[in-house]
Design brief:
The chain has 114 residues and is of the alpha+beta class. It has three helices and four strands. The radius of gyration is 23 Å and the shape is elongated.
Length: 114
């Protein structure tokens, strides 16, 4: 993502000109007819699981050794990072964040390089 934006530096980036990595989530729903639970005929019971892989990760590895299964992959929203201040021009200097749009937790969680 950062490489694509660096190629367009100094110009307005074209619409949809850069693509980031895919992000995915998982949901699961279980519907049971009421008669299975000895409820009236029209009754239904539904169980909704928003993150079953995250729960399985927690159950198998514990909270201290999570593998990141089922976690929401939110892209890093920071495009520009301040790199200094130019007193002569009275302006801040910015660089493109190399992790912009990144969704891998191992890349998003680390601090930026100085």
């Amino acid at each position: 993502m950062a490489k694509c934006l660096n190629l367009q530096r100094g110009t307005i980036a074209g619409r949809n000109s850069c693509e980031g990595p895919w992000a995915q989530t998982m949901q699961m729903r279980l519907d049971l007819p009421g008669r299975l639970l000895r409820l009236p005929e029209r009754a239904r019971v539904a169980l909704q699981f928003a993150n079953p892989l995250g729960a399985l990760d927690q159950a198998l590895y514990g909270s201290s050794r999570l593998r990141g299964w089922g976690t929401a992959a939110l892209p890093n929203p920071v495009l520009l990072v301040p790199r200094g201040y130019d007193a002569g021009a009275a302006a801040f200097r910015y660089d493109i964040n190399p992790r912009f749009g990144e969704t891998r937790p191992s890349r998003v969680a680390r601090p930026l390089d100085p």
